[in-house]
Design a protein that fits this description.
By secondary structure, this protein is an all-alpha fold. Helix 1 packs across helix 10 and helix 7 packs across helix 12. The termini are far apart.
Length: 356
């Protein structure tokens, strides 16, 4: 068994290396998935330990939780209205697209709703088995969505920026995040020990979430535990480069579930994938219009904020094209938190509704 696990990880690592060379989005996760999937299809020997999923989901929750700072909480009042519009409209969009994929393209309910959730590829793919979705299809369509977002949305928004003026990048008051707290006194100063404590906090939350039986409980509880610790300590940290290894293991976990039969089934999701991107483009125009109507942000900032891409990536692109980068980053952080906490519960309700 140990040999099979090591060979699976080796195949995932080779896939990651190739994916990085040809610049595939999220190379550690996608490359790891393809590498382990190819190994499994050819040999049927791919395997991963059963506890890996809990650890990977917990650490994913840690990285999400670490992205939320005290200054982000302070800006929430200013952005409450556009954020409510964004989350509400995305819930409607996810519902509509999920029903479309289920009834028109015959995807099972769980898979149909998960592919439409605008979260991270790694995190949403890991949710698949929690709700009975097909992780291979979810991963493929989420990856296609992410690739298309970076390929299509910046060009579209750049074109629209000629019509709609954008604000200069604001300098939101960050406040001081370095105030020493009681929790700081309990955490060692050593960087490696600080990271270990951070990981253990996330794992504790993840295990509790798994025991709770809630949809995406492992990821959500790990995220919540980390947020609470991060808001009450200046020592909570985990180097971002470690996220690559979390993505690698995540990809390997998905890859071991892919067989030749799974690959043959990919042909039926090409059209749904294209429709998903078209739906996101339409949703982006509608949602950004409604967000701009709140009077809290300009149209270009709203278009970037409602694009289903990564927080740092969209904020960075906005700094070149136009838009308020700090607002965009904060909006994306809260959008992702909603995707990992609220949307799985919505998906569960919808799945129960369509399967009655």
């Amino acid at each position: 068994m140990i040999v099979r696990i090591l060979l699976t990880l080796l195949a995932a690592a080779i896939g990651t290396l190739i994916a990085s060379k040809i610049r595939i989005p999220v190379p550690f996760m996608i490359g790891g998935m393809i590498g382990s999937a190819v190994f499994n299809i050819v040999t049927g020997m791919a395997a991963m330990p059963s506890f890996t999923k809990t650890v990977v989901q917990s650490l994913s929750g840690v990285f999400i939780g670490l992205s939320l700072k005290r200054k982000d909480i302070r800006t929430l009042k200013e952005l409450a209205a556009p954020l409510a519009v964004l989350i509400g409209c995305l819930m409607v969009f996810t519902t509509v697209m999920g029903l479309l994929f289920h009834y028109i393209f015959d995807l099972d309910p769980a898979t149909a709703f998960l592919v439409a959730i605008p979260g991270g590829v790694t995190e949403i793919s890991l949710m698949s088995t929690d709700v009975g979705a097909d992780p291979a299809i979810v991963s493929f369509m989420q990856t296609f969505r992410l690739f298309s977002v970076y390929l299509v949305f910046p060009a579209t928004i750049a074109f629209m920026s000629k019509r709609y003026p954008s604000e200069e990048t604001s300098h939101m008051e960050e406040g001081k995040d370095d105030k020493v707290t009681t929790l700081d006194g309990l955490i060692p100063d050593n960087l490696y020990l600080r990271q270990l404590v951070t990981a253990l906090i996330g794992l504790a939350g993840g295990i509790l979430g798994k025991l709770s039986g809630l949809p995406s409980g492992t990821l959500s509880f790990a995220m919540i535990f980390t947020i609470l610790a991060n808001l009450n300590s200046t020592k909570i940290t985990l180097k971002r480069e470690y996220k690559r290894y979390v993505q690698l293991f995540s990809g390997a976990l998905i890859g071991v579930s892919i067989s030749m039969e799974t690959v043959r089934g990919f042909t039926k999701i090409v059209l749904p994938s294209l429709i998903l991107i078209l739906g996101y483009l339409i949703a982006n125009f509608v949602i950004s219009y409604l967000m701009a109507k709140t009077g809290k942000m300009d149209r270009i900032t709203a278009m970037f904020a409602s694009s289903p891409g990564g927080a740092s990536d969209m904020a960075l692109i906005a700094s070149e094209i136009g838009g308020d980068s700090p607002k965009i980053a904060v909006m994306h952080i809260f959008r992702l938190i909603a995707c990992y906490s609220i949307f799985p519960m919505l998906a569960k309700i919808l799945i129960e509704f369509v399967t009655k």
